[in-house]
Structure formats: C-alpha cells, structure tokens
Amino acid sequence: MTEAAALEARRDAAFLRYGELAVHRNGAAVARSFFNPRLPRQAGEVVGLLGDLALGSAAETRAVLDAARAWLRDRGCTTVRGPVTRNTWYGFRAMVAGFENGPPYPGEPANGPELPAALTESGFLPFASYVTWVLETPEAQLDGTRRQVARAHAAGYRIRALDPNQRDAELRAIHHVVLNAFDEEMNYLFHPIDLEEFALVLGPGALAAATVWLAESAEGEVAGFFYTYPSRYGIVAKTLGVSRTHAGRGVAALLTAAVHEDAMRQGSIPVVHALMRADGGSLALSAHGTGSGAARLLRRYAVFGRAA
Hints:
The protein is of the alpha+beta class.
C-alpha cells in the first residue's frame, strides 16, 4: 500500500468511528456515499453526502449516483449533497467554471467540465457557490484594511509564524481556534472533529510545507490563524480562522495583512484568495483587494444537491 493509500485508509477509519460509508460501482463509474449522523440538519432535512466520483458512460454514472442515493435513503437521508468526501473537512466542491485558466493549484478541485454535467444530468443542481480570486498586487488588500489592523494592534494583538519546533502544541492551538471559529450556521455542513482526525485532515508534512500565521492576544492566547502555501499562481491564502471570543477586534484583517505583506516581501507576488463561499464573510474581507481592479476571477465551484 502506498503512503497516500495508507493515509486515506486512516482517514476512512477515523470517519467510521462516527459515520458510515459505501462504495458503488457500475462499469467504469465509481462513487462513494457517506452518512454522518453528526451533520447538522438543514431546514429539517437529513443530509447525506456523495463524493470520489469517477465517471463512466452516462448510464454507468447515473447508475452509481442512483445507488448512492438509495443507500442514503435507507439511512433516513432526505437530501444528497456533493461532491463531498467524508465531510467538508476533506475535499469538497466541484469546479464549474474557469477550466481554461490553467491547471488546478494544490487543494483545489481538479475535475473537468464532465463532472458538473454528469451531476446535472442526474438531477443535481448547484446548491452552494464558491470562487477563487487572484490578487495580482497584494498592496491593494493592505490599503483597504489599515483601520482594522490598527485596531488590532491597539488591542495588543501581534502576528507570529508557526513554530515548527512546537508542532504538537501549535496544532492543538489551531484546532482549538477552529472549533471556536466555525459553526454550522456560518460554515456549510460543519461539525467538530477531534484533534486526532484534524491531524489526519492536514496530513503528514502539511504544516512543514505551509506558512501558517498566528495572531496572539496580549495575554499570549492564539486568537486566530491563516493557513497558506505556495502555488504556480502565487501564495494560496487557504484557511482563515478567528476564535469567536476575539471576533470584531480586527484580528482577521491583521492576519490577512500578514499574508499580503509576506507576498510583498517575496517581490509582490500574487495572492490566491482560495475557495471562498460566494456569499461568505471571507469574500467580504477579500473584497478590500478584489474590488480594487487588481484581481482576476480564476475559478468558480459548487456543491450540488437534490432530493434523496
């Protein structure tokens, strides 16, 4: 078994501690379905998930999607969403536009236009939308957030890079922030996971390959983080989290400024505002830069859904 396959098996095992999964095959088509009793109900609906879809012929693909829906119905699901692998801590979304804009960056959906077409042909419709913008001049973001950054500094917050020599302690601090930053109301299909599974989500070496900025309060508490890594398009600004106990104090703007200042130190390279919910708070913060005319829309994505 390869290292990648072993990691996926461990991730499945972690998910199976609280959920169920099934594999559906028909000819060349394959899909996996996931039942997770921890998922919050959406307007009273019981949501099941499907992901890891490999396309076959039109008939084969419809057959595995129908089998996935039937399996989820048997477990009480009334709605199916996808593509989602296990849950939204792992890979989810399908690319729906921007295929012509170059190969995917790490962490981005890598599907072709055939996937959204196959989902649509099987009765799935876009349910939640996401975008990636590339900010060509990082200075544009800084110009729009100076007031919030000053407020954070005045309150005693400071920025530091993750300490690789304290990996376990830093990972615990980031996990604590995540559980206090995200919730089911603001983050689609969110549910908490323990530290062990959180480490599996990141995978071995993920923190070493990334640049993670941490915001600390005057008392030394980690109040937020920004997880970033390099790509062919520039710095990928992937995940921003601020604990709710520190919200409204300019901490998100302070972390965002740290990422764009890092880009400037590297020669004003672009910053990729990655995989943002099209109607979410991250997009609003990002708009300080993307609304400046210095950004280009790289790609659009969607989570699809239909009745089970």
